Please model this.
Amino acid sequence: MVQNKKTSSKIQKFLSGKGFYIALAFCLLAVGASAYTAVRLDADPEPEAPYVADGQNEPDVNWGDQQANVPATDVPDTRAETQAPAETQTQAPQQEEPAESGYQLPLGEEISMDYSNGEMVYSKTMNDWRIHAGIDFKGAADAEVKAIAAGTVKSVKTDEMYGVVIEIDHGDGIVARYCGLAKDPTVSEGKEVASGDVIGRVGVVPCESSEESHLHFEVRVNGELTDPLEVLGKAG
Model:
């Protein structure tokens, strides 16, 4: 207890001397620190340096709510005009249509008997089997018979089996026989005919008189009997 009283007495003496000045110094430091903090808070922040474009690198721009993909209308078009290359269209090869024979039928389109092509067929008129060397085109008596193509009349004659027969050379080795015509045909030997010219009218074919009224029509190519429909381009 004695020691404590001595210590307290020493502190009081110190404070009554130099201690006063030390306490005053602490107070002044506290006041200065407070003033400095207040000045820093009230001062304006130092402005940032403005952005200066260097002409090459542009800053990133935040467009915000601006609509994307909207083309600019005030920018001149400096592109050189170029012509778009023409589209190459690949066309499928066209199929060639079969060439027409250039021949026409001599009488209608209804056939009463076909070309037998060397086979024997029964003849009601002759009551036997024989080759049918031509095509029988059905037609009413006195119906017009026409030239299948242009040509020259080789002969006009009357045959015991086929009646009035006109032979016309149509060129290219083709000779046609128009059989069973009525008397007094409209052409004569040596006359030139055009395709479709009337050369006579339907009469009677003696060896086929039991058949319906018709024209018996034969064709030879280079002397050989040939299916008339093949020559006319009507086969099949």
